[in-house]
Design brief:
mainly alpha, DNA Binding (I), subunit A, 3 domains, two-stranded antiparallel sheet, 8 strands, elongated
Length: about 260
């Protein structure tokens, strides 16, 4: 490693390595004469003495070169977009717990400030937020309905596991038609065993039904209601029971996707 290197400013002895000195090609041992501590202290003192002029220069530089900087950033993002996305996913996956903890710490430390900032944003963008929420609600009505049904099931302390993907698969199984009348109408979530009789909100108990059939069936069981309907179909009844794996009026096993 060699003899100790003396800092030209503070006069202290340090090992001649890049841990204590910045690199400099034409310097002794390829290092600067002043240590990193002195460089940092000197830079800080210079900044404090020239803060206004430095800030003014940086702002002017940013203003003049704003277009160049923006274009350069856009070009970089376009060329390295896939790499950035993949790297971000890998980093978040590896540091999931750390990121979650940092987020919690930041929220606790800045709770009031974040709430105030959120309130200011909502107050100044009230119309835009209302329109955005309206558009999202119209585009995601099925998801909202499922969320409402799950909350209703939880309030009754019933099993609530139905997902949007499962609901879409259930509708496809019945060709996007009402499982009772066979009509191709707007479909609602129908509990085969009614909620009032502890019917769970899961793939094992949910069927696609039009609003008319759903309201008509109400809290009745299939054998109490369906055979008396003018649109009753033995074929559709068997399809329902087969789909839910009922044999001899007993559900044999749970469905899964």
């Amino acid at each position: 490693m060699g003899e100790a290197k003396v800092c030209s400013r503070c006069g202290e002895d340090f090992p001649p390595t890049s841990e204590y000195f910045h690199r400099q090609k034409d310097g002794k041992n390829g290092l600067r004469a002043d240590c990193k501590k002195c460089v940092k202290k000197s830079s800080h003192e210079y900044y404090e003495l020239n803060k206004e002029s430095i800030t003014k220069y940086n702002r002017e530089y940013d203003r003049v070169n704003q277009k160049k900087t923006t274009e350069r950033q856009k070009t970089y993002h376009i060329l390295h977009n896939e790499h950035r996305i993949d790297y971000g996913k890998i980093y978040r996956e590896k540091n999931r717990k750390l990121l979650a903890e940092n987020k919690r710490k930041s929220y606790r430390a800045n709770h009031e400030a974040m709430l105030a900032m959120s309130k200011r944003y909502k107050d100044s963008h009230r119309v835009e937020i209302r329109e955005r929420d309206k558009i999202w609600s119209l585009a995601n009505r099925p998801k909202i309905n499922i969320a409402h049904q799950r909350r209703r099931a939880r309030e009754r302390q019933l099993l609530s596991t139905l997902t949007f993907v499962q609901w879409e698969s259930i509708k496809q199984h019945f060709d996007n038609k009402c499982c009772y009348c066979g009509e191709e109408k707007k479909l609602t979530i129908e509990h085969f065993i009614p909620v009032s009789k502890s019917g769970e909100l899961s793939i094992n108990n949910v069927l696609p039904s039009c609003a008319s059939c759903n309201c008509s069936k109400g809290a009745k069981l299939l054998n109490e209601w369906y055979p008396r309907q003018p649109f009753y179909s033995k074929e559709r009844e068997q399809k329902i029971l087969k789909y839910l794996n009922y044999k001899n009026k007993i559900q044999q096993f749970s469905l899964s996707f």
